[in-house]
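Need the bound structure for zinc ion, inputs here:
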Amino acid sequence: MSQAPQDIEQLIGLMARLPGLGPRSARRAVLMLLKKRGTVMAPLARIMAEVAENAHNCQTCGNISGATTCEICSDDRRATGEICVVEDVADLWALERGQAFKGRYHVLGGTLSALDAIGPEQLRIPALVERVTSENAREVILALNATVDGQTTAHYIAEVLEGTGVSITSLAQGVPIGGELDYLDDGTIGAALRARRKF
Ligand code: ZN
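Answer from helper R.:
Posting the output first, comments after.
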């Protein structure tokens, strides 16, 4: 359609798969990159190759890290006995921006979904149960999105943790219904965390 050379078309096709970019904006982005080849495109290509090579999921919490254990899990000051359960790394980053949480995280990597055949094993829920016991956790904070899937997942987790004796809380009001943590401003997310309540 845009009649660009084949490799550029391929680049546009890949860029169009990024969130928030359709074919039209992908094409505009690629044209911009070509114009700024030296200052943006080449450094971007280098850092992308580097990140693709080096980024791992933390074997404990699922956070993205350059090491097998992330900075948060290897920081002893964060062994507070609190584990904050989030859907995605974007939510972990949002909570870290809010600077209200000093404990550790557990990244599920999504929500339960019968439709997409996503069960507890795919979401590292058994690993969470294991951590609660092995880390002697006092509190599990369910910081899942206020969507139907997020809340279904929260209820499931509360159920499987019943009997471990751990206290289960969730973020307070301030998370709009249907809302996603990543879109909250840092102050709101901090307030919702501090005012968390029994789940
Ligand atoms: Zn970690």
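Comments: The longest strand covers residues 82-86. Residues 58, 60-61, 63, 69-70, 72-73 surround zinc ion (CB under 6 Å).
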